[in-house]
Amino acid sequence: MTVIEGHNSKITVYVVSCWILAAFGGLMFGYDIGISGGVSAMDDFLILFFRNVYERKKTAKENNYCKYDDQFLQLFTSSLYLSALVASFFASKAATKLGRKITMMMASLIFIAGAVSSAAAQNKKILILGRILFGIGIGFGNETVPLFLTEVAPIQHRGAVNILFQLFITIGILIANLVNFVTVNIHPNGWRISLGSAVVPAAILFIGTFVISDTPMSLVARGKPEKGKTALKKIRGVTDVDVEYEEIVASCEQAKQVKHAFRNLTQPPSIPPLVIAIMLQIFQQLTGINAIMFYAPVLFQTMGFKGSGPLISAVVTGLVNVLSTCVAIIAVDKMAIGFILLKNLSETGGLDKTMAVIVVLLVCTYVMAFAWSWGPLGWLIPSETFPLETRTAGFAFAVSTNMLFTAIIAQAFLTTLCFMQAYTFFFFSAWIFVMGLCAIFFLPETKGIPIDAMVERAWKKHPVWKKLF
């Protein structure tokens, strides 16, 4: 048992089950990130939906950097995130009015509908419809799961528990890469298996919603104080929860005074977390991580990898993403990739084997660095720094910003690669230095601070943000 400032808790099988089952929302997200790039590189898929890309890919003297440059092919990936952007605001309302548990259930069901539609698609309209349904499911899941994990985690374990979301994203990416590695050899419907298999993590989340309880914060806020206290005892594994429960009740009473959550995001207590939440999501995408994760097989084919090489390389980077245990110097590796491609990869031909291996190793180091920095913290910090009265509304802005810039990267990367070629990686490198400086000067330390004490103990004491209070 651990005691911090009157917050009693112990780790039980039930609470660990809650964390893991909810984190499958992250696995849904990760699976879709990983699956789209592999599917986009499958010949059977291209022949059915993007014949011009297939023909260009097979041209004897194709431009390495431009053979996948197709706006509709990129729309296959980006349409999901555009729909997720819109859905996140509806998810914010659902999470507030219906609770975290019901909203996660809705996310899983819509995601399953997207998987079925995508796998059964015979034309582009149904294919894009499936992507839109995927996006709505992701919007609901990404809005709710980090909030759920933050609100059920004890103070001393909150960071680790919330990082489960990012960890399961990486596991989903790895699983997707492995699925693609198998299904690429199943003709002509391997791509259907890849997309349809997305039902598995969504089904697990759906079943999990019958096991987990809603968060005490959500129950009390929705006028169910007794259920809230019972849930708190259950997730803390102890009966002495009076101190924490009274803090939750007080926060909920204060939140009830706020009638327009989105309007109140302009008030001083919410401005710092709103600015930071938006900034983190923009910077997370400007690391270029999703350019790698979405289009890893495509990118490795661009570099001249043949046969199963692109999918094997994608699996390796996915595995590194999961197993990462230290932070590397992220900008240095991204710049190194740019220099290698600039020097060694012309418009036709490919990298020699030595350079190809070095590029894969650098990509793995870059992914490793992201997995222990901007990856998990981009979701953790916004989920815990808003005051309760604007938490779901503020986090909706974080999710929608993430989805917007994810969509921009997904829609623009292959075209940017065609236009800027190796200089694309220098572009991302420059942003990484900028975001490092912003983190130093603008991010507060939140470790060990109760989520309902962030304003007093983090924002009001920060040398920059305290000027707003």
From TrEMBL:
PROSITE patterns membership: MFS, SUGAR_TRANSPORT_2
Compartments (UniProt record): Membrane
Transmembrane segment boundaries: 12-31, 72-90, 102-120, 126-149, 161-179, 191-212, 274-298, 318-342, 354-375, 395-415, 422-443
Superkingdom, taxonomy of origin: Eukaryota
InterPro entries the UniProt entry points to: MFS_dom, MFS_STP/MST-like_plant, MFS_sugar_transport-like, MFS_trans_sf, STP/PLT_plant, Sugar/inositol_transpt, Sugar_transporter_CS
Membrane protein topology class: Multi-pass membrane protein
Recorded GO CC terms: membrane
Membership in a protein family: Belongs to the major facilitator superfamily. Phosphate:H(+) symporter (TC 2.A.1.9) family. Belongs to the major facilitator superfamily. Sugar transporter (TC 2.A.1.1) family.
Protein's recorded name: Major facilitator superfamily (MFS) profile domain-containing protein
Organism: Solanum tuberosum
